[in-house]
Structures are given as structure tokens and as C-alpha cells.
Write a structure and sequence with these properties.
single chain, mainly alpha, Citrate Synthase, domain 1, Cytochrome p450-Terp, domain 2, 2 domains, 3 strands, binds acetyl coenzyme *A
Length: 381
């Protein structure tokens, strides 16, 4: 096909980049499934660890298999002393997503088998290590930047509870641990989004899995993608009360701004994960007390529905997640790292899938530049 016949689809919107059996979305019906299981059923009945097994194996685990996965993750959670020392040297004012991207690369440099990932045992080990250790990397940087002692993982706690323990230094209440566990389930995979596409592109070059994950972390940090969740809280904090929402929105729209936590490339209805997270908000507030920011959020949702609902702009996963995380004592700039400690499981499921039938990504382009210039020596220009 000649260049002239090609049609550009900005952002590759809706163009299939690969076949995948990991997750499924129906954006009109508001459906999300992991390996054929509806997200609401997994959120109600499952655990993050069980979802990791499901994403990687295509089926739910038996008890012994889940116990084995849990034990493997627990065994791989601690950081080598050299890595801890480097984390302490990272700039305390840097963003935790940058710290995470850097330290994931560092893990790769630290593993002499990083490039032997075509060996199935090595691949399995690296996948387990990455899921196990990302929460430790995030928590260690957070404690270090606050000048606090870095807390060792607790082998008796699962991923969510252990993360809260490592950042807060207190054993979390059951409701807090379960709430974060469900949030991790909801964020684990979401078809061919920008960071997953990044992961698959890097994987297709046969770069090692640490490079795959560190690149995906970089993409997730962007405000149009995972980085939206911390900006939602910043926006909500700017609005003094529910009554002030219309005036705030007038100014936002007049400036041509987008409202963080709304809109999605695939959903034209409310994101099913936002439904689940809103349910979690209710449960957590009932047990731990409400926050005024929630009233502002509800008023914003109503006002946005009136103004841009007809364009298919509804709350996405990021709209309610920050409200939940804030209540669990998680700092605003850790919201996107929390997303990453869940999504790493999905990125790795896609990495495994890509490696099974790999073809290097090499899309085309539509050239819009000029041709045939004569080279002019520098002193004649
Ligand atoms: N606030 C207000 N209006 C919006 C918003 C928003 N958040 N999102 C889209 N619109 C409007 C656009 O202005 C545009 O209106 P127009 O047709 O009158 O010009 C129309 O809806 C279509 O918008 P696009 O930007 O073309 O939609 P696209 O599919 O490219 O964007 C995106 C999707 C990037 C997520 C966008 O909705 C956005 O920037 N949202 C805010 C950031 C955010 O919350 N990101 C998290 C997404 S979920 C995730 O990544 C985990």
C-alpha cells in the first residue's frame, strides 16, 4: 500500500495490536472480565493473589496452588541490602513513580539471569519476584524519603495488608486490608491500554522483563493514564464544597481543561471498576468515618453527567480510587504506584502471551515531511 492510501488513526484508537486472552472489555455495556470471569465476581469473592494466578494460568487455582503462589511471593518480597542502600540515596523530592521505574531497572541489573528469561524457570522466578517486590520498592522509597526506618515485609500478611504495614508501620484493620485487596483486583488488567501496549512493544524486542516493566511503569505515570488518580484528589481539594462544583467546572471548561477521573478511550458508560470502587468507598466510610471530599466528588459526578454525559464521558477507575486510598492513609503521590503494584500482574500476563508467539512491533507511519533538499555546508547557511 502506498503512503497516500494509508489512513492515520490517531492514538491507534480501536486498532487491534495483538490477540489476547487475558482480559475483555465491552465498553458500551460496561463489562470487564479477566480470563472470562466478571470483575464484580472477582472483586466480591477473590483475592489479589488468586487473580495473579488466574491472569497467568487462565484458570482459578486449587487451594494448594494458591498456597504455593502465596508462599513464593512471600519468599521473594525482601530487598537485597545493596538495593536498599541505593533507595536511600534517591532524591527524597522525586516522584515515587520515578523511584519505582528506576528501582525496577536496578532489580534487573542485580539479577545475573535477567536476560535468560527464555528459560521457563527463570521467567517464572522473575515474574514472581516482580509481583512480590514492587510493593516493597514503593514502601521502602516512601519510608526513606520521610526519614523513617524502612519496614521489613511481614510473611504472615498478604500483598495488600503487607503493603499497608510497610508504609504505615501499623498492622492494618481487616476492612482496610480487604479494601486495598479489592482495589488491587480491580486494577490488575485492562486489555490493550497504553502501559500494556508499551509492555508488549518492549517485550517484542526481546528486552528483558525488568525493562518491560520499567517502561510500562513510565507510561502508567502519565496523567492521561494511571497518573490521573492523584490528580483527581488535587482537583477535589481545589473545590471548597459541593455547592462550588458548578463554578469550578465553568472555569475548568472555559480554560479548555479536562476533568481528571472522567472519560475513557473504551468505555462510553461508567467504568465498571468505578462502580466497585464506589461500593468500597461506602463500606470504608461506614466503618472508618466519611470525608467531606466525597460529597464534592458526588456533586462533581452529577454535574459532569449533565454537561458531558451525552459525549460518553463518565467516571473512570481513577475517580474513586484516590478517595479510598486517602482513607487508608496512603499519600496522594503513592496512588499511581499502588496502581502499578497491581497492574504488574497484568503486564506480566501480557509479557508471557507476547513471548509465546512473538513478532517485533514495527508499525508504519504517514510521512508528512519534505524531500530532495540539497546539503548546504554550514558556513553557507
Ligand atoms: N473532561 C471533560 N471533557 C472530556 C474529558 C474529561 N475528562 N475526557 C474527554 N472529554 C471530551 C473532550 O473534550 C472531547 O470533547 P469534544 O468532542 O467536544 O472535543 C470528547 O470528550 C472526546 O474526548 P477525547 O479526548 O477525544 O477522548 P479520548 O478517548 O482521546 O480520551 C482520555 C480518553 C485520555 C482518558 C480522556 O477522557 C482524558 O483525558 N481523561 C482525563 C484523564 C483521566 O482520567 N485518565 C484516566 C483514564 S483511565 C486509565 O488510564 C486508568
Amino acid at each position: 500500500m502506498s503512503t497516500q492510501e494509508k489512513t492515520l488513526v490517531p492514538g491507534l484508537a480501536g486498532i487491534p495490536a495483538s490477540e489476547s486472552a487475558v482480559s475483555y472489555i465491552d465498553g458500551q455495556a460496561g463489562v470487564l472480565e479477566y480470563r472470562g470471569y466478571p470483575i464484580a465476581d472477582l472483586a466480591a469473592n477473590s483475592t489479589f493473589e488468586e487473580v495473579v494466578f488466574l491472569l497467568w494460568n487462565g484458570r482459578l487455582p486449587k487451594s494448594a496452588e494458591l498456597a504455593e503462589l502465596r508462599a513464593s511471593l512471600v519468599a521473594k518480597r525482601s530487598l537485597a541490602p545493596e538495593i536498599l542502600e541505593i533507595i536511600k540515596l534517591l532524591p527524597a523530592g522525586g516522584h515515587p513513580m520515578d523511584a519505582l521505574q528506576t528501582t525496577v531497572s536496578l532489580l534487573g541489573m542485580h539479577n545475573p539471569k535477567a536476560r535468560d528469561f527464555k528459560d521457563a524457570d527463570v521467567a517464572q522466578d522473575i515474574c514472581l519476584e516482580l509481583v512480590a517486590v514492587l510493593p516493597t520498592l514503593v514502601a521502602a522509597f516512601d519510608r526513606s524519603r520521610r526519614g523513617l526506618e524502612i519496614i521489613q515485609p511481614d510473611p504472615d500478611l498478604d500483598t495488600a495488608a503487607n503493603f499497608l504495614w510497610m508504609i504505615n508501620g501499623e498492622k492494618p484493620e481487616e476492612i482496610a486490608a480487604r479494601t486495598l485487596d479489592v482495589a488491587l483486583i480491580l486494577h490488575a488488567d485492562h486489555t490493550m491500554n497504553a502501559s500494556t501496549f508499551t509492555a508488549r512493544v518492549v517485550a517484542s524486542a526481546e528486552a528483558d522483563p525488568y525493562s518491560v516493566i520499567s517502561a510500562a511503569v513510565g507510561t502508567l505515570s502519565g496523567p492521561l493514564h494511571g497518573g490521573a488518580n492523584e490528580r483527581v484528589l488535587d482537583s477535589l481539594a481545589e473545590i471548597p464544597s459541593a455547592e462550588a462544583v458548578p463554578t469550578w467546572l465553568d472555569a475548568k471548561f472555559a480554560a479548555g481543561g479536562k476533568v481528571m477521573g472522567f472519560g475513557h478511550r473504551v468505555y462510553s458508560v461508567k467504568d465498571p471498576r468505578a462502580h466497585n470502587l464506589q461500593g468500597l468507598v461506602h463500606q470504608v466510610f461506614e466503618k472508618l468515618g466519611s470525608t467531606p471530599i466525597y460529597d464534592v466528588a458526588l456533586a462533581l459526578e452529577t454535574e459532569m453527567a449533565e454537561r458531558v454525559g451525552h459525549k460518553g464521558i463518565w467516571p473512570n477507575v481513577d475517580f474513586f480510587s484516590g478517595i479510598v486510598y486517602q482513607k487508608l492513609g496512603i499519600a496522594t503521590d503513592l496512588f499511581t504506584p499502588v496502581f502499578a503494584i497491581s497492574r504488574v500482574s497484568g503486564w506480566l500476563a501480557h509479557w508471557q502471551e507476547q513471548m509465546k508467539d512473538n513478532k517485533l512491533f514495527r508499525p508504519g507511519q504517514i510521512y508528512v515531511g519534505t524531500h530532495g533538499h540539497e546539503y548546504v555546508p554550514i558556513d553557507e547557511r
